User: Which sequence fits this backbone?
């Protein structure tokens, strides 16, 4: 009888030890595997959500309803920015110190003397800075092909002509924006964007 009781006690001790290590393994699994997966899964969902919102915003910026509110500046002269009512001011401002670039990145010229109909540059309504930009050859920035007038927030340019003569071909260019604090000539920074120009 004693032997059976001793065996039973020994088995209970082993079962207790096994239960302890099982619980410990479960805690480790929770802390190091399941919880991080849940955390990173939520972060991935957030990032995907932000990416979708960014794509949707880009699509909205080319919507016909939005274009109705744009003040288009011709490439050769500047127009005054129109007054806007509160119903149009529904876009949050870009964080101060940032600049949202909205432009077509490939311009096609039927010949060197005819403006590119598909050229488009906008100083988005939710930016905080006025801007001017130049277009130059990427491998020789001293060769300036176009220099814009001052573009207030909410204005845009289309039908940009070439001020420099280019032979037919494909050119890698750069658009260099200079940002200004609104209503002043005080520079606030620069932004550079690649551009492809095709002269047919």
Assistant:
């Amino acid at each position: 009888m004693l032997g059976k009781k001793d065996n039973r006690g020994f088995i209970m001790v082993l079962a207790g030890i096994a239960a302890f290590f099982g619980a410990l393994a479960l805690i480790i699994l929770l802390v190091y595997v399941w919880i991080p997966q849940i955390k990173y899964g939520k972060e991935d969902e957030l990032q995907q959500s932000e990416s979708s919102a960014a794509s949707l915003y880009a699509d909205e910026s080319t919507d016909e309803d939005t274009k109705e509110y744009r003040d288009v500046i011709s490439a050769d002269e500047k127009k005054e920015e129109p007054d806007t009512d509160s119903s149009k001011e529904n876009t949050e401002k870009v964080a101060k110190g940032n600049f949202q670039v909205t432009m077509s990145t490939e311009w096609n010229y039927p010949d060197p003397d005819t403006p590119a109909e598909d050229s488009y540059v906008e100083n988005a309504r939710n930016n905080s800075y006025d801007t001017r930009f130049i277009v130059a050859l990427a491998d020789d920035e001293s060769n300036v092909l176009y220099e814009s007038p001052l573009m207030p927030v909410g204005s845009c340019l289309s039908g940009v002509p070439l001020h420099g003569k280019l032979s037919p071909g494909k050119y890698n260019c750069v658009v260099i924006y200079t940002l200004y604090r609104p209503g002043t000539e005080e520079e606030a920074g620069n932004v550079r964007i690649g551009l492809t120009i095709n002269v047919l």
The chain has two helices and nine strands. The CA atoms of residues 16 and 22 lie 10 Å apart.
